[in-house]
Inverse folding.
């Protein structure tokens, strides 16, 4: 599950505040832009995620989580919900099917479509990947207490809800 990932690190996690303060800083005008801050946090989050989850686990996590929450879905619907290209979703579903994490069968209502369902093995795999995702989130949110983490999540959810979803 935690295959080595050769992702560059922006800063060591155990860097002291004095070491962080000594790093060159962009101008305040730039640092005050929420979009700039969000972009930097996104980069830090992506690097933390890469350290804890290989790329295939991230795609697996998205598909397995969607099937857990929404039940059986066609490959096309999975792609739409996750904002993934049909070739990407097909490759992920094929890999998950080969490991027994999902079951892919022709839709009885429309034999041209495949319905994908989560298996017990897939639910167990989702829990494993969730643990890695939780580690990445803990690393990202270092410095915030539980109340601040909940507030940040609520504010980010509110911002995302105010904008039309776009494909990844």
């Amino acid at each position: 599950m935690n295959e080595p990932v050769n992702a560059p690190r922006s800063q060591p996690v155990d860097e002291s505040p004095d070491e962080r303060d000594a790093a060159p800083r962009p101008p305040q005008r730039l640092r005050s832009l929420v979009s700039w801050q969000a972009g930097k946090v996104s980069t830090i989050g992506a690097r933390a995620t890469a350290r804890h989850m290989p790329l295939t686990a991230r795609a697996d996590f998205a598909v397995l989580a969607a099937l857990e929450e929404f039940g059986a879905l066609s490959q096309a619907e999975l792609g739409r919900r996750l904002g993934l290209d049909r070739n990407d979703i097909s490759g992920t579903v094929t890999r998950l099917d080969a490991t027994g994490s999902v079951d892919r069968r022709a839709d009885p209502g429309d034999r041209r479509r495949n319905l994908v369902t989560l298996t017990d093995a897939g639910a167990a795999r989702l829990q494993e990947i969730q643990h890695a995702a939780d580690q990445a989130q803990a690393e990202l949110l270092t410095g915030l207490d539980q109340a601040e983490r909940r507030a940040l999540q609520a504010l980010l959810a509110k911002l995302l809800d105010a904008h039309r979803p776009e494909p990844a």
